[in-house]
Specification:
Order of helices and strands: HHHEEEEEEEHHHHHHHHHEHHHEH
Largest sheet: 5 strands, mixed, barrel
Structural class: alpha+beta
Number of helices: 16
Helix content: 55-70%
Number of strands: 9
Strand content: 5-15%
Shape: globular
Distance between the termini: 38 Å
Radius of gyration: 23 Å
Number of domains: 3
C-alpha cells in the first residue's frame, strides 16, 4: 500500500483541533482539561507522521479533536466561573489586553483578561468601560469595581462605567515604550489626523484616530490599513525578502522572520496579527526550502495553531473571522481572477490591487452584513486611490520619525492626500448600503462563493500551489 503523505496527517490533526475547540465552547469536558491530554495528542500525531499509514490519518484527526477539547475546556471553565457573577457588584483584578480606545461618551473602553473576582480565581475576558482619567495601557494590571453584566460574543461579561481602584504600569513589555516614543515624535511633527494615520500604518496604533476620522475610514472601507493587519505585515515581509534575497536566501528568511516577530511585538498579538504572522512565517519557510504549499493547507494549519494559542478566536472573535475571511479571498479568489483575465502574465500594480481588494471585500461581505448590517459601496475606489501609496508612506514616515521634521515633508504630503480621499469619499451620500441578512442567507452567500471558486478553477486550470503571499 502506498504510504500516506505526512501532510494529510497534519491537516487531519488541525481539522480535528478546530472541531474540538469549537465543541468545547458548548460542551466543556472537565476530565479533559489536564494538559497531559495535549501530550497524548502530540504522541498520536507523531505516530501518524512516522508510520505514514492511511488509517492513521483518522487517528491524527481524533488526536487533534482531543487536543482541541483539552485546550478549549481549560479556557472555557474559568469563563463559566466569571459568568456566574453576572448581576452582582464585584471587584475584579485583571490585565488589559490591547490598547484602550476612546468611546463616544468621553471615557475609555478596554478588554480585560480576568485573573480573580472577589479574590477567587476566574478567567475569560470582559468588556469594560470607564470614565477614569488614569492612564491605562496595554498590559496594565488593574483592580476595578462595578456591576457585572451578561457577556456577548467572546466576552464572559461586561462592566459599564467601572471604577478603577488601582492601575499599575505594564511590566516586561520593552516594545511598548519604544512604540509610544516613536508615536510621540510623529504627533510632534505632523497634524493630528496625519500623525494618527502614520502611527496606524507603522505601529498598529489605531486608538489615536479621532472619532471623525475613524468613522470616515469605516465608511469608505479603509480601517484595515490603520490597524495591525496582514496587509501592513505583508509589506514589511516583501520588503525584507526583496532587499536580501539577491544576496542570501538565509539572510532574507532571517530578516523576514525578524520583521514578523518585531512588528507583532510592537503592535500586540491581536487575532489578525496572529493569523498574519503565522501565514507570513510559513510562507517564508516554504519559499526558503523551495516548496509550494496549497493555500488551504496554510488556512487550516494557521487556524488550528491560532485557536490552540487562544481558543476564544473561533468562538466568535470578529477580528479573527474577518482576518481569515479576507485571507481566503486574497489567497483563493484573487489568483483565480488574475489568471482568468491575464493568464500566465502577472498583472500590474493597479489590477493586482483591484482584484485583491475585491476578493477580500467579497469574502468578508457576508460576515459584515450579518454583524453590521451595512457595506461600503466606495471601498473599492478608496482602496485603489490609497493602497498604492501605503508602502511609500510607511517608508517615508519611518525615516521622518527617526530623523526629524526636515525629512517628514514628503510623508506629510502623502498622508494629507489620504486624509483628503477618506473625507471626500465618506461625504458621498450613497457611500454605504444598509442591508441586514439572516444567517441562512449568509450560508447561501458562502456556498455561492464556493461554487464560483470551483467554476473559475475548472475554467482556468489554475494550480493553487503557485500562490505565495510573500511574493
Amino acid at each position: 500500500m502506498k504510504p500516506a503523505h505526512p501532510l494529510y496527517s497534519v491537516l487531519a490533526w488541525s481539522a480535528g483541533c478546530l472541531a474540538g475547540v469549537l465543541a468545547a465552547r458548548f460542551v466543556p469536558l472537565p476530565a479533559l482539561a489536564d494538559p497531559l491530554w495535549l501530550v497524548v495528542s502530540a504522541g498520536g500525531l507523531l505516530l501518524s507522521l512516522w508510520q505514514q499509514r492511511r488509517w492513521l490519518i483518522a487517528l491524527a484527526c481524533v488526536c487533534g479533536l482531543l487536543a482541541g477539547l483539552c485546550r478549549g475546556t481549560a479556557v472555557r471553565l474559568p469563563e463559566i466561573t466569571t459568568s456566574h457573577y453576572s448581576g452582582q457588584t464585584v471587584t475584579i483584578h485583571g490585565r488589559i489586553n490591547g490598547d484602550p480606545s476612546a468611546n463616544r461618551s468621553g471615557g475609555q473602553t478596554v478588554q480585560l483578561a480576568v485573573a480573580t473576582i472577589q479574590n477567587q480565581p476566574a478567567g475569560g475576558h470582559i468588556w469594560l468601560t470607564t470614565h477614569t482619567h488614569a492612564r491605562l495601557q496595554r498590559g496594565s494590571h488593574v483592580v476595578v469595581r462595578g456591576k457585572l453584566s451578561p457577556g456577548f460574543g467572546v466576552f464572559a461579561g461586561a462592566m459599564y462605567r467601572a471604577r478603577i481602584i488601582q492601575a499599575t504600569a505594564p511590566q516586561g513589555d520593552i516594545f511598548l515604550p519604544m512604540r509610544d516614543w516613536f508615536a510621540g515624535r510623529l504627533f510632534t511633527w505632523l497634524p493630528n489626523d496625519e500623525a494618527a494615520l502614520a502611527a496606524g500604518f507603522l505601529l498598529g496604533h489605531k486608538t489615536a484616530l479621532s472619532n471623525q476620522l475613524d468613522e470616515a475610514m469605516r465608511t469608505v472601507g479603509l480601517t484595515h490599513i490603520v490597524v495591525a493587519s496582514g496587509y501592513n505585515l505583508t509589506i514589511l515581509v516583501r520588503l525584507g525578502r526583496r532587499l536580501f534575497a539577491r544576496h542570501s536566501r538565509k539572510i532574507a528568511l532571517i530578516a523576514g522572520l525578524s520583521l514578523v516577530a518585531g512588528f507583532i511585538a510592537i503592535t500586540g498579538a491581536s487575532p489578525s496579527m496572529v493569523r498574519a504572522g503565522m501565514v507570513a512565517a510559513l510562507s517564508m519557510a516554504a519559499w526558503f526550502y523551495g516548496r509550494e504549499v496549497h493555500p488551504l493547507t496554510l488556512l487550516i494549519v494557521c487556524a488550528a495553531a491560532s485557536v490552540l494559542i487562544q481558543p476564544r478566536y473561533i468562538w466568535g472573535d470578529l477580528g479573527w473571522l474577518l482576518s481569515f475571511a479576507a485571507f481566503g479571498g486574497v489567497m483563493f479568489l484573487a489568483p483565480l481572477l488574475q489568471h482568468y483575465f491575464y493568464g500566465q502574465q502577472r498583472p500590474q500594480l493597479i489590477p493586482q490591487i483591484m482584484t485583491e481588494t475585491f476578493s477580500a471585500q467579497i469574502f468578508t461581505l457576508p460576515i459584515t452584513l450579518y454583524v453590521f448590517g451595512s457595506v461600503s459601496i466606495v471601498a473599492l475606489i478608496a482602496n485603489l486611490l490609497v493602497l498604492p501609496f501605503i508602502p511609500l508612506i510607511m517608508l517615508l514616515s519611518a525615516i521622518g520619525g527617526l530623523l526629524g521634521p526636515l525629512v517628514m515633508a514628503p510623508a506629510h504630503w502623502l498622508l494629507s492626500y489620504v486624509v483628503m480621499v477618506v473625507y471626500q469619499l465618506a461625504s458621498v451620500p450613497w457611500a454605504t448600503l444598509e442591508l441586514r441578512l439572516p444567517i441562512s442567507a449568509i450560508i447561501g452567500l458562502y456556498l455561492g462563493l464556493g461554487a464560483m471558486l470551483w467554476w473559475l478553477q475548472r475554467r482556468t486550470q489554475f494550480s493553487w500551489r503557485s500562490v505565495n503571499i510573500t511574493r
